UniProtKB/TrEMBL annotation:
Pfam families: Fungal_trans_2. GO terms for biological process: positive regulation of transcription by RNA polymerase II. It is found in: Nucleus. One of its GO terms (cellular component) is nucleus. The keyword Nucleus applies. This is Uncharacterized protein. The keyword Ion transport does not apply. Its main location: nucleus.
Length: 611
């Protein structure tokens, strides 16, 4: 299921000995051609920096890095610059980002002189006027005076055959906008401004993930390259040339961790970096579940816990592993989780020492662990039953054992009580209040019940009564044994009840990043063809027609929420999720009454990380 990442050739180091200014006078006849080249180049630069681009040009240069430090980062050769400039064709704009007076002062040629630049000091005060660029420069200068942090220096590849951007001595203006193409700084800025807020279920100054990365990324090679990879992957849909950079940074971060295994695997920066690299491997290859990285991350966590002792709170990391495991167990055998599977089954539930929501699981720590157990038993049972054509005694033993475990998990879900919000620290994210996390916890619980009742219909038979949402968690004794059709309708009602809970969470809520799993898990219950099995009276047909309309509306809601999420966090794996859901609905509409999303994902190799 997993495919190795494609190899990319290393980026050669730019020649640092290339002159920034010409050593010989520029011939008189070359001034005109230089002026023409300068004008063409500036038009291309302006076109790439028009407001239509999603890059914030003021952040592309790194104000905290010195000239030597910036030279130590990535440098683009002429081919790379041409590639960047070809992404967007030059377009005119009535409101240019660069003020004309500022452009004239910095870039115009003076009377064909051999010196193509006019000194800023040669302008009178009346010729200058404040611009966005000059104001930005003042802010950057102020920022540099306020704070300068030590920066991790990434390894620079060898300088085989690369030429400096400024090697063309006849155009000394070329090294003026060099910082505008400081790609690592742009990716770092994009990561902190966009990626974290889209990746976590909530975000604020108390987000443990944000705090660890902000405090360590400039001194940790593992975190530095991890953030570069995640940012480049998020932008690769709009900038395809960043795909290779995302994969290269992913490999470099792993090499950094593995090369320092004896010194750094017990540090929280390497631990978090490895978890993020594994969890986001599907950003680069949607079908890559990275179970090997899960096992390694768990071993690193165990080593860190044993070395730190009982006084160290590692709940953030352990809860991260629990959430990651929950997403994996529905798509792969739990034996692939290594020591985590054994410790999860035999170890006691650890009391939480942190009353603040987790960035991934929110306030649903206990619910996530129950869902993990549900996924383990369902995946193993369905995998066994898919290959059974004639029942044997061993198959019956597997069924009985699985059914007993499913009943135990049903009771845990029915007895679950959401945490008291008065006991939870509000993280202070205005887009994600605690009520959203509470709704999400309820949706998780009902999703777990939905999976159990679909895979083990006898559980639903034991408590069946005509649908009443007030009785979902009370499970009164069965009033009758339902038919297959009645059971399907009941499960469809439960699925639409879960969607009703999700509807109460506005799309602007950051919990949208963890909703895809719920949307996929209920997709196989959105049946609209049950009326085709009946030939009753007109009132029945009218009722079923209304039911089908509601199902269609529910499907559209699922599709619209996933589509909107794709535009916000454009990753290839969202297309895999769409394909999985469409395959499920196509099978349902074709009359297949035994469609289950997990079976479709397993048979068609459409499993991907859904959170």
């Amino acid at each position: 299921m997993q495919s190795p990442a494609q190899e990319t050739s290393p980026r050669p180091e730019c020649n640092r000995d290339a002159p920034n200014t010409p050593t010989d006078p520029i011939p008189e006849g070359a001034a005109a051609s230089d002026a023409t080249a300068a004008g063409d180049y500036i038009q291309q630069i302006d076109a790439c920096l028009t407001p239509s681009t999603q890059w914030d040009f003021s952040m592309l240069c790194d104000p905290l890095a010195s000239e030597e430090e910036q030279d130590g980062l990535y440098r683009l050769d002429d081919d790379a610059v041409s590639e960047l400039l070809s992404v967007q064709a030059p377009t005119s704009t009535s409101d240019p980002i660069w003020d004309p007076s500022f452009t004239a002062a910095s870039w115009n040629f003076a009377n064909g002189s051999s010196n193509p630049l006019l000194s800023a000091e040669s302008m009178s005060a009346g010729q200058r006027r404040p611009t966005e660029s000059t104001q930005c420069a003042k802010r950057i200068t102020h920022l540099v005076k306020d704070k300068r942090q030590p920066r991790y220096q990434p390894h620079t590849p060898s300088d085989s055959g690369c030429q400096e951007l400024t090697e063309t001595a006849r155009n000394p203006f070329l090294d003026r906008p060099r910082d505008l193409f400081n790609l690592p700084s742009a990716l770092s800025d994009y990561f902190f401004r966009e990626v974290i807020t889209l990746y976590c279920a909530w975000d604020s100054g108390s987000n443990a993930m944000r705090n660890i990365i902000e405090n360590m990324w400039q001194s940790s090679g593992a975190l530095y390259h991890t953030t570069q990879s995640m940012a480049a992957a998020c932008l690769s849909e709009d900038f395809p040339h960043l795909s290779s950079i995302a994969m290269a940074e992913h490999r470099q971060a792993l090499d950094y961790i593995q090369g320092r295994s004896q010194q750094s695997t017990k540090r929280e920066d390497s631990l978090l970096a490895h978890m993020l690299l594994g969890h986001t491997a599907s950003w680069l290859n949607p079908q890559n579940l990275a179970t090997d990285m899960f096992r390694t991350s768990y071993l690193m966590l165990k080593d860190t816990a044993s070395e730190a002792g009982d006084g160290c709170d590692l709940s953030f990391f352990s809860d991260t592993m629990d959430y990651w495991a929950m997403l994996l167990v529905y798509l792969t055998d739990s034996s692939h989780l290594g020591d985590y599977r054994q410790d999860f089954s035999t170890g006691p539930v650890r009391p939480s020492t942190n009353m603040e929501p987790h960035p991934f699981s929110g306030i649903s720590r206990e619910t996530i662990r129950i869902l993990t157990e549900v996924g383990i038993i369902i995946f193993q049972y369905r995998k066994r039953m898919l290959g059974v054509r004639f029942m044997t005694e061993d198959d019956l033993d597997v069924f009985r054992s699985s059914f007993r475990e499913a009943r135990r998990l049903e009771r845990r879900l029915l007895a679950h009580r959401a945490p008291d919000l008065s006991q939870i620290t509000d993280p202070g994210d205005p887009k994600t209040p605690l009520s959203h996390l509470q709704h999400l916890d309820e949706a998780y619980r009902c999703t777990g019940l939905l999976q159990l009742y679909r895979v083990f219909p006898d559980l639903l038979n034991e408590r069946y009564a005509p649908w009443n949402k007030d009785d979902i968690l009370r499970a009164p004794p069965a009033t009758k044994t339902p038919t297959t059709e009645e059971r399907d309708i009941w499960l469809t009602k439960l699925a639409m009840h879960i969607l009703g809970i999700i509807r109460e969470i506005p799309f602007e809520s950051r919990t949208r990043s963890v909703q895809p799993f719920i949307l996929v898990a209920l997709s196989s219950e959105l049946r609209r063809d049950s009326h085709n099995q009946l030939s009753g009276s007109s009132p029945k047909l009218l009722s079923l027609d209304h039911h089908s309309i509601e199902v269609v509306r529910a499907r559209k809601f699922v599709g619209s929420r996933l589509a909107a999420y794709t535009h916000i966090l454009p990753l290839r794996k969202i297309r895999i999720i769409f394909e999985l859901i469409n395959c499920v609905w196509a099978a349902l509409d074709a009359g297949d009454q035994d469609v289950y999303w997990l079976d479709v994902a397993y048979q068609k190799n459409l499993g991907t990380m859904m959170g």
